[in-house]
Structure formats: structure tokens, C-alpha cells
Specification:
elongated; 3-stranded antiparallel β-sheet
Length: 171
């Protein structure tokens, strides 16, 4: 870039009086701004007065919730599940796993080698394969005894669970 490429100077050149007036206005403006910043504002003091009490209220409320655990926050206690209901849940889980094995057998023409081959494996159920057509499923009943589902001869308690499930493959 050359000096000739710059904008030409303006025709009207300011006079020393104009420059002094503009400089005086700028200095006066800067001094008023500085004076405003130096004196504390009354609004600042008023807004800070509510922060202390509000923080104490919030601290007290959080301590109450943290240590006392009020009933309106905790909600209703969970219902207790009886041993009989848990036992029926284990029976239903065995029946559902047996149905999955039957669906696998219908699709693939064989029973699975392990439960890892079925789409969903229910935890706590052990799979015992007797031969290419018969299997057993074993799970622990809540009272401590083993519950066994035998595909060759299912126990009547498993048929009671099936009521209301609708049609499906039967063992």
C-alpha cells in the first residue's frame, strides 16, 4: 500500500478552539464517570441486605432435608413382599425361561446348549440339558429349597402360573 492510496485529507481542518472545546468536553465526561464510580451506589447496599438472610434460610432448609428426611420428601414406604409372592415370582421366572427355550426349539429345531443362546437370560436360573429334547431349569426358592422345572414332566405349580398368559408353546 502506498501513501497515495490513502484517503485524501478533509477540506475543513478544525480550528484550535474546536479542538480545545472537544478536549474539554471529553475530560469533563471522563471526570463525571470517574466520580460516579468512586462513590458507592445506594442500590448496591440495598440489594446486598437480602443475601445473608436468604442464604441462612437455604442452608437451614438443606440441613433439614439432609438430616431429618421429612416425610413429604421420602414418600410412602415400599410395600413388603411376602415369601409366598417371591416364590410365585421364581415360579413365573422359571416358566418364562422355559417358554423362551421352547420358542428357541421351535425356531432352530433343537434345544439350546446353554441359556446364552436364548434372547433373554433370567439371572439366578441354571439350565441342565438331559438330552437333545429334555432339559431342566433350576432356581432357588426364597425358603431355601431348589425349584426344578422339568420339560418332560412339568410340575402342576407351573401350569397354575400359565393361566391368563394366553396360548403359547406348552412343554
Amino acid at each position: 500500500m502506498k501513501i497515495e492510496d490513502l484517503d485524501p485529507p478533509a477540506e475543513r481542518v478544525s480550528s484550535p478552539e474546536d479542538r480545545n472545546r472537544l478536549l474539554a468536553e471529553a475530560i469533563a465526561h471522563a471526570e463525571t464517570k470517574e466520580a460516579n464510580y468512586r462513590q458507592p451506589s445506594k442500590q448496591g447496599r440495598r440489594t446486598g441486605q437480602w443475601k445473608g438472610p436468604l442464604s441462612l434460610v437455604v442452608l437451614g432448609l438443606s440441613a433439614y432435608i439432609g438430616f431429618a428426611s421429612p416425610p413429604w420428601l421420602a414418600g410412602a414406604p415400599l410395600p413388603q413382599v411376602s415369601s409366598t409372592e417371591r416364590g410365585r415370582g421364581v415360579v413365573a421366572a422359571l416358566q418364562m425361561q422355559a417358554r423362551q427355550i421352547e420358542v428357541f426349539r421351535a425356531r432352530h429345531g433343537r434345544i439350546p446348549r446353554t441359556l446364552d443362546e436364548v434372547p433373554v437370560r433370567i439371572p439366578g436360573i441354571r439350565f441342565v440339558r438331559s438330552n437333545s429334547r429334555v432339559h431342566q431349569l433350576v432356581a432357588a426358592h426364597p425358603n431355601g429349597r431348589a425349584l426344578v422345572y422339568d420339560s418332560a414332566k412339568p410340575d402342576p405349580q407351573f401350569r397354575d402360573v400359565e393361566v391368563g398368559w394366553g396360548p403359547g408353546p406348552r412343554s
